[in-house]
Each structure stands twice: as C-alpha cells, then as structure tokens.
Amino acid sequence: MVALLFAAFPAWAAKHEFEMTIEEVKIQVAPGLSYNVFAFNGQVPGPLLHVREGDEVTVHVTNNTSLAHTVHWHGLYHHDNWRNDGVPAVSQPAIEPGDTFTYRWIADKPGTLWYHCHVNVNEHVGIRGMWGPIVVDPKTPTALEQRVTKDVIMMLSGWESEFADKFGEGSVPGTVVDFFSINAKAFPLSQPLRVKRDDVVRVRFIGAGGEIHAMHSHGHDMLITHKDGLPLPAPYAVDTLLFGPGERYDAIIDMSNSGRFIFHDHVDKHVVNGSKFPGGAITIIEYEDTPQDDWYVWRDKDYDPDFFYSESLRKGYGMFENPRFKGEPLQQRRRHRKAR
Ligand SMILES: [Cu+2]
C-alpha cells in the first residue's frame, strides 16, 4: 500500500525523515505567565517543516507525555493515504503515552500549512501549544511570490491563565482567554519584525488558536496573495486582515516606508496581558536605518532573527527548531523532586 502510494510520485521528489517527540514543558508566554504545554520537540510553536511540493515526508512521532495525542497535517489531501490524517477514532487510534506512530505523506498541497494535535483539540490546540508551521514551496511560484526577500511566520493564539498549570482542563465554553500571543510570546516578550528598506516581506499568518484576529500593519498595506496555501486569482490590498481558527493568509508587504510601526491585533481585547495594556498580539516593524531613541520600548532588545523562522526558511529544506521556543521540562523536574 505504501509502495503503491509512493510509486505514483516523480523520481525527483526529495525524501525527508523526521523524528518528533511530544514533551510536557513549561513555557514563558508573558511576563508573569508561564504555561504548561504539550510541546512538539519541547517547543511552541513546534519545529518548522519546510519541504517542496511533491516531496515524501516520514515523521516518527513519540509521545513522552501523560495523555494521548495525534498529529493532523492541516491542509494536506492525503490521496489514498487517509490513515495519515491524524484524527483519533476516525483515521487512527490515538498515540498513547510512551508510544510512537509513524506518519507518511506526500506534500501534495503547496503553501502555508500547519500541523496540530487532533485529540481534545479545544484544550491541546486551544491552550496547550500543540501546533507548528509547515511551508511547502510550490513547483511553480507566482510572479508575486518570486519578489519576496524575507519570509515571516506568525502563529496567533490565546491562553487562559486560570488553567496555566492544569493539564486536562480549560478551553471550554465559558472559560476566559485572557492572554494572546504571536508565536507563543505576548508583547513585550514578542520580537520585532526587523527589515531593510526595499525588503519584500511575506507574512504567513496562521490562526493556531480558537480566536479571531485582525492584524493591522501601521504605515503599510498588505497584499493578500494566498488563502489556505492557494494563490488567489485576484490578490487584494488591506491594512487590516481578519482571520480565524485554522485559517492561513499570505500577505506581501513592500517595506518602502522607513521608521518604526506597530503591527498589532485590532481586536482590542487581544492587546492586553490579563488586565494590563499593552500586551498580547503586538509586534513592531523596525527598519534597520531607524535611530534607536532613548524612549523606544524595545531599545536594546535581545533580538532573535529567527523568531518568525525567517532565517530557517533561508536554509533550504528540512526540520528547523528554535531554542527560544523551548520550554523547561516538567517531567524531569518531577523526577528530580522524587529523587530528593
Ligand atoms: Cu493532544
């Protein structure tokens, strides 16, 4: 069955084999908010998978947590391959604690995709960080995307402080989402989008949590070129982009307006940390030629050029991690305590 599936694909397709684990770790989401998560390779967002359209991908997923999980590869078609769709009790039994499941798929849909757990999605995806990006480069890029000089991935999500340390609880109707983030960091722990003048930046927005977002780029229009990975027949310009759970939009921004501009969720309640403004889903477009004023909120920021996976996306194909996204292991700590 597997041989038959792969025989249908062209000889030039690359083969990738990745190892992923799911770990119980604690990440720092906002000042004063650390959060227990089930983290792919111990980090949120999970590692970036970057492949080409038509590539064959094998992922061995080992569950080192105390609850069952799966991985759904959101956007792929899985032609004649539905058992790899990652839905418990529909396409496979869930991966129990300590078990490994091997997923095999063809990157049969190009563009901005993502992966997430499909067990108790309200909690595991909604507030436990079980998500990561997939970028599938198309065989035939559009003229617009060939202009891009810098790629940026922004995964938006929310958090419920009441359930930060309560695995197995939270994220049901009536519970309160009071923290918001870009790539699992709330302002001011988020990072600037640092650009050179005349850069052509593509932002790949991914609605990873359960909220609706309205990202607004001050000083710049965004040309929306792709929806859910697919090129739009008529790209359109916006300065505020509305997107909801599971959705992806690719936006191309011409960086032709030097200075510093906030880039934030325009859902007003999404720019707080708990009850305090400012926070949440905020970043800042920083042109490199802008002077660092004394009063600038991110003056002398500890800058991570790969916070939006921009550096990783330049490195070719494979699986990419970012140490900044890693959490502190919880199980180890428990074992340590027992030992004493
Ligand atoms: Cu899960």
Description:
With 340 residues, the protein is mainly beta. The chain has 2 domains: 2-141 and 321-335, Cupredoxins -  blue copper proteins (Immunoglobulin-like, Sandwich), CATH 2.60.40; 145-304, Sandwich (Immunoglobulin-like), CATH 2.60.40.420. It has 5 helices and 21 strands. It has helices spanning 2-7, 121-124, 143-146, 310-314, 330-339, and strands spanning 15-30, 33-40, 48-52, 56-63, 72-74, 100-106, 111-116, 131-137, 150-159, 179-182, 193-195, 200-207, 213-217, 222-227, 230-238, 240-243, 248-254, 260-265, 282-287, 318-320, 328-329. A 6-stranded mixed β-sheet has the order 10-9-12-17-14-15. Strands 1, 2, 4, 6 and 21 form a 5-stranded mixed β-sheet that branches. A hairpin with a 2-residue loop joins strand 1 and strand 2. The longest helix has 10 residues, at 330-339. It binds copper (II) ion. Copper (II) ion (CU) is lined by residues 38, 69, 117, 119, 124, 130.
